[in-house]
Structure formats: structure tokens, C-alpha cells
Amino acid sequence: MGVDPGTQIMGYALIEVRGQRVDVLCYDVINMKALGSNHAVKLKRIFDRMLELIDEYLPDELAIEAPFFGVNVQSMLKLGRAQGVAIAAALSRQIPYVEYAPTKVKQAVTGSGAATKEQVAHMLRQTLKLPPIAEASKFLDATDALSVALCHHYQKGNNVQAGGKSWGKFLADNPGRLNATTTTKKTSAKKLP
């Protein structure tokens, strides 16, 4: 399960992995704009919805985007609380979690840590063969959550689909290389005048 935390809109995504095959089960948002400015009500909504998703899909792990450093301290605190509540929901069901920095997620999915939300969504559509979404801007938080889930999949050494390489795959494909000895050729050194 991937989560892109937010206090107005929180993205979530669930993927199923079988070998190198990745199937998207769902990706959407929890929209809390209509809940007003009461932060406690929003946090409860996040917790409740996370539990509903966990109970429905039974994920093995939670991958969540770490809050990015911002100028507004109050916004950072609220975002951190939203992230903490999502993590607490997972932990209440004994689901381990891992955090990824936004730049690491973008790097894993697009090859650039400075990619825009639109570039991330475009790459996900290509990589996972997702249908185009007519109102894509509404779902950028959902595709961000999907990118967090996919990043976690890649970080576990499953990045063959993304064109990357893993040591595990290299060693499996080249068993003789593990114990190969290296030889060095001695060269004579020339004396300089």
C-alpha cells in the first residue's frame, strides 16, 4: 500500500505483486476539503479510511512518502500528524511501514528526483499501462501514492521492469562470477627523467 499524506487530500494506492508482475488494485484520494478547518476531524477521517482500506485489501506493507521540508512550520506539523495517523492505522493492524523521501520516489519512478507530479503520473501510465484519466489533475495525489508503492517495490530489488539492475538478479544470472578470482597484470613502470 502506498500513501501520499495530506491534510486536504491524501492519496492512496494498492498494488499486488506476483514475481515481476505489478497489478494496480486501486488508487484514489481521501478528500477532506469539505470537513472544514478542524484538524482533529480530518485526522480521524484519515485513520478510519486507512483502516477500511487495510481491512478490505489486507496489504503486507505500507510505503509512505516522508514530509518534505517546507517554509510553513504549521503546515509541516499538520502534514506530519497526517502521516503519523496513517502509520498508526497500519501499525494497529501489525503492518510494517517504510518512508521514502519525495525525491527518492520520483527518482525511482521517472529517473529524475526533480520530476513534476504530471511527469510522475505520465510515467506510471506508461509503466503500468494505466488508462488515461480525463481529469488527471484531480488524481495527482493518487498517482503520487501509486508511485510510492511502486518505489517500494523497486527498492526491494524488483526494478527489472523499470530498466534498472539489482545485485540479486545479476548474481542469479551469473553464478560463476560470485567466486571468481581476479588477476592483475603487472606492468613495468617506466622511469621518468
Automatic annotation (TrEMBL):
Top-rank taxon: Bacteria
One Pfam entry name: RuvC
EC top class, as a word: hydrolase
Residues at which Mg(2+) 2 binds: E65
Cofactor(s) annotated in UniProt: Mg(2+)
Cofactor: binding comment: Binds 2 Mg(2+) ion per subunit.
Reactions catalysed: Endonucleolytic cleavage at a junction such as a reciprocal single-stranded crossover between two homologous DNA duplexes (Holliday junction)
Main localisation: cytoplasm
Sequence similarity: Belongs to the RuvC family.
PANTHER family listed in its UniProt record: CROSSOVER JUNCTION ENDODEOXYRIBONUCLEASE RUVC (PTHR30194:SF3)
Protein name: Crossover junction endodeoxyribonuclease RuvC
Gene: ruvC
